[in-house]
Each structure stands twice: as C-alpha cells, then as structure tokens.
C-alpha cells in the first residue's frame, strides 16, 4: 500500500481482517465480548479445497487490524452528520484498549494490530472480493428506555454548549476515508493504517 510523503506508518497487515470499530454510548462489556467472539469466529475465508465461507480468521491464522472509527455512529440530521451517540473520547479510548486486550487474549497477541487511537489517519484497505460485513451486537442487549434517556441527557448537554463554532477533538480526528464505513475482510495485499505528516 502507498503512504503519504513524509507520513508515518502506524500498522499494517497482510491477509486478514480490517476491523473498523465504532463505539456507542450504550456499549458495555457484554457488547465488547460479543464483538470479539464474532470477529474471531466469522467464517469469511475459503478452506483448503476452495470452499468459500467456511473458515474464520483464527482457522487460517490470519492477522487482524483494528481501527477506532467513531464516525460509524453517525446519525444524519438532514444532510449534516451527527455523532452524539458515539462514546466520548476519554471513555472510548479505555473501551477500545479493553477491546484490543480481549481480542489478543482470545487469539494471538502478535496477530492483532491496531491504529493510533484518536489520530488523524489515512486507512488504506485492499478489499478482497470485495467483502464487507457489518457486525452489530444483539438488539436485545439495548434497553430502548435507557437509550432514550441517554439521548435526552446528551441533548441537554448540547443545549448548554457555546454557539461559537469549534471542532471537537473527535471531529478533528475523523478518518478522511469514509468510503468503506464497516469491517472489511480478506485483504489480498497489505492493509495499513497511516498517520498524516
């Protein structure tokens, strides 16, 4: 994969899964454990005889590259993206690190790579197929009343903000490439995550 002139390459993998992880306000340890299991056991690769959709990343001993991407929690208000359902940066970083730790513990630490949390990155994905799978934790784990309460709390916070336009740290750190806003799999070549100079 190509990198920007003077850019710093943070992580790269060969064949495997690129996981773009969007963490929402209501995500808990339960959702985290579900996603780790699903990612590692999802059968998206072919077996030795060429039969498709029969092997997981663990079966093939392929790599996993994780990139934190709050923009997956986008809610459109007209034509304007709204990210109030994304977990705030300080909490999300802790959640993301916990996610990585559990993924490494359930698989092999050396096969799990990650981007730099909160960094302004260009993510280059060579999609094999292309195959893109969207994974969500079970809807049953979300309490609609609690979700409404969280939204109302967030709306109250938004109303108290100053009206002077300013970018939040999460908005500044939004990935430039939003063409593929979900987990992709089976990259034939390198999958890399790079930070701009």
UniProtKB/TrEMBL annotation:
Residues 146-157, 168-181 have a biased composition (Basic and acidic residues). It is found in: Cytoplasm. InterPro entries: Daa-tRNA_deacyls_DTD, DTD-like_sf. Residues 138-197 are annotated as: Disordered. Coiled coil: none annotated. Gene3D superfamilies: D-tyrosyl-tRNA(Tyr) deacylase. It comes from Furnarius figulus. Keywords: Cytoplasm, Hydrolase, RNA-binding, tRNA-binding. Its EC number is 3.1.1.96. This is D-aminoacyl-tRNA deacylase. Its main location: cytoplasm. The gene is Dtd1. Belongs to the DTD family. GO terms for molecular function: D-tyrosyl-tRNA(Tyr) deacylase activity; tRNA binding. It comes from the Eukaryota. Pfam families: Tyr_Deacylase. It catalyses: glycyl-tRNA(Ala) + H2O = tRNA(Ala) + glycine + H(+); a D-aminoacyl-tRNA + H2O = a tRNA + a D-alpha-amino acid + H(+). One of its GO terms (cellular component) is cytoplasm.
């Amino acid at each position: 994969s190509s990198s920007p002139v003077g850019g710093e390459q943070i992580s790269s993998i060969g064949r495997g899964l690129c996981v773009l992880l969007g963490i929402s306000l209501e995500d808990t340890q339960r959702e985290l454990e579900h996603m780790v299991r699903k990612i590692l056991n999802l059968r998206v690769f072919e077996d030795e005889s060429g039969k498709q959709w029969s092997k997981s990343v663990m079966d093939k001993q392929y790599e996993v590259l994780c990139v934190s991407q709050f923009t997956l929690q986008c809610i459109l208000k007209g034509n304007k993206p709204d990210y109030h359902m994304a977990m705030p940066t300080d909490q999300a970083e802790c959640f993301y690190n916990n996610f990585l730790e559990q993924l490494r513990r359930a698989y092999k630490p050396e096969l799990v790579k990650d981007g730099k949390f909160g960094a302004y990155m260009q993510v280059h994905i060579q999609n094999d197929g292309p195959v893109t799978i969207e994974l969500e934790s079970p809807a049953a784990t979300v309490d609609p009343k609690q979700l409404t309460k969280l939204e109302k709390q967030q709306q109250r916070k938004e109303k108290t903000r100053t009206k002077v336009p300013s970018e939040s740290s999460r908005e500044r750190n939004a990935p430039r490439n939003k063409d593929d806003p979900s987990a992709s799999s089976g990259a034939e070549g390198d999958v890399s995550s790079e930070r701009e100079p």
